[in-house]
Amino acid sequence: MAATLAGCATPGVHQGTGQAATVIASFVYRCESGRIIEAAYRADGTAAVRYAEQTHLMHVAVSGSGARYVGDGLEWWTKGTGAGAPGTLLRHSADDTTGAVIESCVQKQGRSP
């Protein structure tokens, strides 16, 4: 997915996690609960996912379809890009299995600033 995202974003630097890394794409998702998730996909294969005023640094993980990132006991799974593309935030278990859905979201139009 990183290659797909690279073609549609302006590079930048995200420093919310205390580490500077080149951001290749960032998107905003509106969730069914009304909350917002901001996801910044980085050149090093990680994603900084901001949810409920906390930023979680996640690493890319194997998925059968779409892009999947795990870290901090959470899992962020997206499929496609563009307005309306789905994103799901889930619990991630210590045994590397997917847990309960926390948020079901869709990508808003455009990228985050």
TrEMBL record:
Instruction: Note the InterPro entries from the entry.
Output: MliC (IPR018660), MliC_sf (IPR036328)
Q: RNA-binding: present as a keyword of the record? A: no
- Which domain of life, per UniProt? Bacteria
Would I find Signal among this entry's keywords? yes
**Any idea which UniProt keywords this protein has?**
Lipoprotein, Membrane, Palmitate, Signal
Segments forming domain C-type lysozyme inhibitor: 29-83
Q: What is this protein called?
A: C-type lysozyme inhibitor domain-containing protein
Task: Provide the species name.
Answer: Rhodoferax sediminis
**Which lineage do the record's taxonomy fields give for this organism?**
Bacteria, Pseudomonadati, Pseudomonadota, Betaproteobacteria, Burkholderiales
